[in-house]
Each structure stands twice: as C-alpha cells, then as structure tokens.
Design a protein that fits this description.
CATH superfamily of the largest domain: NADH-ubiquinone oxidoreductase 51kDa subunit
Number of domains: 4
Helix content: 40-55%
CATH architecture of the largest domain: 3-Layer(aba) Sandwich
CATH class of the largest domain: Alpha Beta
Number of helices: 22
Largest sheet: 5 strands, mixed
Radius of gyration: 24 Å
Distance between the termini: 72 Å
Oligomer: single chain
Strand order of the largest sheet: 2-1-3-4-5
C-alpha cells in the first residue's frame, strides 16, 4: 500500500485554532477508509489566516488546503485531496501561493518544510553545514565571516554581531557563555516562537557556532514561560543533538565542547533587556545593570558573555554555509540580509514574511497584508513592539532599513508590525504606552519608574482639555527626560509612541 505524506502544522498558533483536532480527524478517517498516510506535524508556513493548514505531498509538489477545521476533513477525503483533488479550500501548490512565493526565506528556509524534530530532515535540508564549516576554521576567521556578512542583532538595537563576538573572544575569563535572548515579549511579534517550534536545530547550530567563535563552552536559552510548545521542542531537539554528538564534550569528533540548556523566565517584559535577563538567569530579581561593564566583558556570573536573540543566532548557520558575500547580497545600506517581519492587528493576511531589507512599509501592508481586515483605510502601524513609533500613512513609503527608520525617530526593532484602521483613537494608544511602562518598569531608575506614571496623568489632563497647550509642553518635556535620563530602553523608548501620536495625530488629543 502506498503511503501519502500529509503535513499539519504543530505550531502554537495553528493549534490554537484547532490544528490538533484536524490532525486527529485526518488520522481517524484515513484508518477507517484504509488509506495509508504518514502525518507530519510541521512548523507553520506563516500564513496564519489559513491555519489550520494541511499540505499533501503529491507528484506535482505539496498541495495546500486551508483553513481546515476538523468538520471539513470528511469533505476533503471525498474530494480526493490525497492526490491533490479540487476542493473549495484548495490553494494549489503551496510554494506558488503569492504570500509565500514572493518571500526570500533564509533563516526560515526550513520552517514548514521539514519535521522540526527530525534531525535527518534537518541534515537533508542543509542543516549543520555551517557548523561543519566552522569546525574547520579558527575562531577569528568565523568572526570575520560573521562581521563581513553585515549581520546585526535582530533584537532591536541592531548592534553588529561580529563586533560583539570579537569582544568576547578577546576578553579573559575562566568561563565564557553564549546566551540566547528568547524572551520575545513585544506585542505583534512571534518570529522567535515560530522558529523555535518549527526549526529548533538551527538555533542550536547557531549557538554552537557562536561558542566555537568566542571560546564559550556553555550556552543558555532564556525562554519566556508563556511558550510551552517551544520549550518542549527545544528540549527534545537538544536531547537529540546530544545523542548525535552535535552538542557535548566532543562535537562531531572535533574535540571541541559546547553544552546547552533552556532556562525559563517568569514573564517580566523588562527581562528582554540583556542585563536584566542576566540578573534573572543568575536567580536574582530582573533589574537593569549599570553599563559599563558591558556583558561582553563581564556578563553572566561576571564572565564574558555573548547575548543575541533567536533570529540573530539562527541567521549564523547560513552565513557560515553559503559565505558572507552571499548574505550581503540581500538588503540595503548597512542593513544586510533578511528580516522576518510579523504582521498583526487589523490586517487581512496576517503572518510571517521574511524579506531582504529595502522593501517599503506600504508593500508589506498591502502587497503582502492585503490592507485592513475591516476594509477601512489603514491609519497607523506601530513598528517595533509596544515601544515603537506609530507611523502614519505619509510614512508608508519608508524602506525597511535601520538608519532610515532611526532618522524618523522610529525603529524596526524585532520586526513586529501592529496595524490600525481609521477607527483607532491614537490618544488612547499613547496613553497605553505610558501605562505599559508603569506596569513593566523594573523600578530601578526614576525617569522610567516615575515618569511613566506622570505621563499617564498628563495625557489624561490633555485629553480632558485642562490647559491643553500647557499639558502638551509638559508631556513633551517629560518624554525628553525619559529618553535621555532612563537607564535602559524601557524608559528611553516609551516616549516614541507617545511623541509620534502627538506629532501625527494631534486631533485625537482634543477634549
């Protein structure tokens, strides 16, 4: 009996809309009808409006159906979907769906394509080739490759990864560490989670290469506790990597060592900041550390430490495999490579888009996102999480580039985008930014701890019409104090959404 391979996403977003029930229904009906299938729970393709998405492997390629609720499964069998038959939920070949076809997937090349827990799948699709190359290189040469590629941190600050690694390599310490910041807490962001669930081996490979490059023999993935599926996926993949000698005391017979484990954070937004994360990882209260010293000199337990986020580290294997020049061919200016963009909020086609730097915000919102789900005009989009600026329609032609965004007092951050139509109250959104800071501040510095509380009060008085001109001057002055006086980006960036709302949508602040 021939066996047909069927893929149903095991991604948390897909499971949240019934993918487990759909998978169970497929298995039950296939058994009842005597049809031989192999069901694979893959990562999500990032087309979240089509979840639960089913893909069937046929002679033509993988054919997509979605969104498929469990109650629709019987009709799929009736239509002959096992051989790619026509159905109202059919979308043809998955690779030809425009949302996916028009992307440039490097970091997410395997997500949705392979079984995330199959090391064999990973190796067959180019996995660990970067590690194999790194094992033949000197640490300084690995770092040069990463530096020449132009890779910058994908967590928000966009600091060149190679410079950070070079600092750790040159620092002295009895032990060095690689710490992955997987405390993905920004609103509208989910690329870290999708990658950890959909291709955990690539993160392991990237962290191992970072260890080889810097002399670090131990690594930690600091994962937010709200990601239980990612936790299970990572632990299972780490166990497989150990048993196949891709981790441990003798990586692939090279005599090189790298140990790796996952540690859970308790859900504090501030622990996404690198020094607060280190405090938490050491078992302390998550508070900001003064800098200097930099973590690259005195980081975890006072030792030299590389701290990069998931996407940064997961971008490293393809650079070592294909070369720095290959990676540099993507992007613009000083923003090289690709960025996984996450499109959420009031948008027709929400999901993950990996593209080279340089496309415009308008292309993301309309060519990929299809405009607002409500059908109304898009009025604003917040880019870079809850501390990112609100960008009006007049800025939608801005290319996605770190320096171009910075010139507009905006930031790309982690690539998250939350979309609002013309029914949004921007004064309420500005107030939310200040209120968010009051809740999530670690409390260590006065501008952040007290400034955010005063910010909420001033916005309330401004919107109530109490001496509005005076309140606006006071609010702008307060924002300047927070920007220049806060110890970290929590207080320093909170004014960005407030000031952008004031500048671009002043009419929403009238009584």
């Amino acid at each position: 009996m021939s066996i047909t391979k069927i893929f149903v996403s095991g991604d948390a977003a897909a499971r949240g809309v019934g993918a487990d029930e759909t998978a169970a229904a497929i298995m039950a009906l296939a058994e009842t009808r005597g049809i031989g299938i192999q069901l694979v729970r893959n990562g999500s393709r990032g087309m979240l409006w089509l979840e639960p998405l089913i893909e069937v492997e046929t002679a033509m390629g993988r054919v997509a159906y979605g969104p498929v609720a469990s109650g629709e499964v019987a009709s799929l069998f009736e239509s002959g979907f096992i051989t790619g038959g026509a159905h109202r939920l059919a979308h043809g070949l998955t690779a030809e769906i425009p949302f996916l076809k028009n992307q440039e997937r490097l970091t997410f090349a395997r997500v949705g394509l392979t079984d995330p827990q199959s090391l064999q799948d990973y190796l067959q699709h180019g996995g660990n080739r970067g590690l194999a190359a790194a094992l033949k290189m000197q640490p300084a040469d690995i770092i040069k490759c990463v530096t020449d590629s132009g890779l910058r941190g994908r967590g928000g600050a966009a600091f060149p990864a190679g410079i950070k690694w070079k600092t750790v390599l040159g620092a002295s310490g009895a032990q060095k560490y690689i710490v992955c910041n997987a405390d993905e807490g920004d609103s509208g962001t989910f690329s870290d989670r999708m990658l950890m669930e959909g291709d955990p081996f690539v993160l392991i490979e990237g962290m191992t290469i970072a260890g080889l490059a810097t002399g670090a023999t131990r690594g930690y993935i600091y994962l937010r506790c709200e990601y239980p599926d990612a936790h299970r996926a990572l632990n299972a993949a780490i166990a497989t990597a150990y048993s196949n000698h891709y981790l441990g005391a003798d990586i692939q017979g090279s005599g090189r060592q790298f140990e790796l484990e996952v540690r859970l954070g308790a859900g504090a937004y501030i622990c996404g900041e690198e020094t607060s994360l280190l405090e938490s990882l050491e078992g302390k209260r998550g508070e900001i550390r003064f800098k200097p010293p930099l973590p690259a000199i005195e980081g975890l337990f006072g030792m030299p430490t590389v701290i990069n986020n998931v996407i940064t580290l997961a971008s490293v294997p393809i650079i070592l495999d294909r070369g720095a020049e290959f990676y540099r061919t993507f992007g613009m200016g000083r923003s090289r490579g690709t960025l996984p963009l996450q499109l959420a909020g009031n948008i027709k086609y929400g999901g993950l888009i990996e593209k080279a730097f340089g496309l415009t915000l308008r292309q993301v919102l309309y060519d990929f996102g299809g405009g607002a789900l409500s059908g109304r005009p898009i009025r604003a989009v917040q880019v870079g999480g809850p501390l990112g600026a609100y960008m009006p329609e007049s800025q939608f032609d801005t290319p996605l580039d770190y320096e171009t965004f910075a010139a507009l007092k905006a930031m790309l951050g982690h690539g998250g985008m939350v979309v609002f139509d013309d029914s949004v109250d921007m004064a309420a959104q500005a107030r939310y930014a200040m209120e968010f800071c009051t809740i999530e501040s670690c409390g260590k510095c006065t501008p952040c701890r007290i400034g955010s509380v005063r910010g909420v009060e001033v916005i309330d008085r401004l919107c109530a019409g109490e001496s509005p001109a005076k309140q606006e001057v006071l609010l702008r002055d307060l924002c300047e104090t927070m920007i220049h006086g806060s110890l970290c980006a929590m207080g320093g960036l909170t004014p960005y959404p407030v000031i952008s709302a004031l500048n671009h949508f002043p009419e929403d602040f009238t009584a």
